[in-house]
Design a protein that fits this description.
It is an enzyme of class 2 (transferase). The chain is α/β, with parallel strands linked by helices and about 400 residues long. It is built from 14 helices and 14 strands. The structure holds 4'-deoxy-4'-aminopyridoxal-5'-phosphate and glutamic acid.
């Protein structure tokens, strides 16, 4: 008999699609994957070299639970250099990926029944993480026409006396939306006025193709004190498997997070921490190279999708995802199945054309499926050719 809490948590749809895709591939099926948002590039060599050197130097023991001082200093320097934010190493908690940093955050700030506002479409894990910490997720729906953006007024209207926090994710997974400085400033004013925390997930900050990244924490001391900034090395440095993410918060929250982590998991992997220092101090060259590839892929995909009858998409300005609108296909019959939902579409597309995309339901975006373009141009060309053939009913 499992707990009520465990029964209320659904599996990650992004990770389930990815494992289904990997299983089909291992079985020799000719499948193309656009599921999990995971850079296809290898981790840069200087980062791998730092990890090998760490092993040879015997850096294979426990470190402080919140991360080595060297890494927390490198993270604090990064915040100063890139975001104009002053943090001490004691404000930084390094965790097993940004996912773990987010779970620690909700554990540290939520009491049972506290509400957390989440603009939708959102990354699938946010509501489940809030529930894990006994909080109540409250979504605000945004639309494609409004660029998938929530306004300060909409946030104000959603705040109740139970609201404890707001989650922001700019650039966004899954929509690729990027908030402007002015939009963030207006949201920050509401957060300060209503005294609610802002959990700002900035993991895609380096992947912006139009516009600039602004950390909401950087406007003034009041909003900085209320913001927990989440970031990590997974996406920026193609280091998804290394599992290093981090959070920056005020003294009280950072201490609570470090305490929680000291019992739950202790320090993140000592070797990966050494590699993360090399990543954060090694310059931008590799990041820019990967970004150029992502941008080329995005431009190609958006143009192709919009040239195919029955589907469309808007231009995402950041991250590496495209939300394809499938609303015109709903009610239509394809290969003997009437498409009634994003799940129907994704299942049929995988079964018939052997292409894995993530259905929008998990993002609270029922009229969409998500493509990740963190995959090779060859795969992208192949995946879109299959989409065209699939929609014109040409598969057997
Ligand atoms: N936040 C967002 C918005 C993400 O897309 C991801 C991707 N997994 C994460 C956090 C977590 O990243 P990781 O745990 O690999 O650092
Ligand atoms: N965040 C990525 C995605 O949305 C990786 C999978 C996951 O951690 O959910 O695809």
């Amino acid at each position: 008999m499992i707990s009520k809490k465990a029964m209320g948590i659904s599996p990650s749809p992004t990770l389930s699609i990815d494992s289904k895709f990997k299983e089909m591939k291992a079985n020799g099926e000719d499948v193309v994957g656009f599921g999990a948002g995971e850079p296809d590039f290898d981790t840069p060599q200087h980062i791998k070299d730092a990890a090998i050197a760490a092993i040879n130097a015997g850096k294979t023991k426990y470190t402080p639970a919140a991360g080595t001082l060297a890494l927390r200093k490198a993270v604090a320097d990064k915040f100063k250099r890139e975001n104009g934010l002053d943090y001490k190493p004691s404000n930084i908690v390094v965790s097993n990926g940004a996912k773990h940093a987010l779970v620690n955050t909700f554990m540290a700030i939520l009491n049972p029944g506290d509400e957390v506002i989440i603009p939708a479409p959102y990354w699938v894990s946010y509501p489940e993480m809030v529930k894990l910490a006994d909080g109540v997720p409250v979504s605000i729906q945004t639309t494609e026409e409004d660029g998938f953006k929530v306004t300060a007024d909409e946030i104000r209207a959603a705040i109740t006396d139970k609201t404890k926090a707001l989650i922001l994710n700019s650039p966004s997974n899954p929509t690729g939306m990027v908030y402007t400085r002015e939009e963030l400033q207006a949201i920050a004013e509401v957060a300060v006025e209503k005294n609610i925390y802002v959990v700002s997930d900035e993991i895609y900050e380096h992947l912006i193709y139009e516009g600039e990244h602004v950390s909401i924490a950087s406007f003034n001391d009041k909003i900085k004190d209320l913001t927990i900034v989440i970031n990590g090395v997974s996406k920026t440095y193609a280091m998804t498997g290394w599992r290093i993410g981090y959070a920056a918060a005020n003294d009280e929250i950072a201490k609570a997070m470090a305490n929680i982590q000291s019992h739950a998991s202790s320090n993140p992997n000592s070797i990966a921490q050494e590699a993360a220092v090399a990543a954060l101090t090694g310059g931008d060259e590799e990041i820019l190279r990967m970004k150029r590839h992502f941008q080329k892929r995005r431009d190609f995909m958006v143009e192709m999708i919009n040239s195919i009858d029955g589907v469309s998409c808007s231009m995402p300005h950041g991250a590496f995802y495209i939300m394809m609108n499938i609303s015109k296909l709903k009610g239509k019959e394809l290969y003997g199945t009437v498409i009634t939902s994003s799940d129907d579409f994704a299942e049929l597309f995988l079964k018939v054309a052997k292409v894995a995309v993530v259905p929008g339901r998990g993002f609270e975006a029922e009229d969409f499926v998500r493509w990740s373009y963190a995959t090779s141009m060859d795969n992208i060309v192949e995946g879109l050719e299959r989409l065209k053939k699939f929609l014109s009913g040409k598969y057997e």
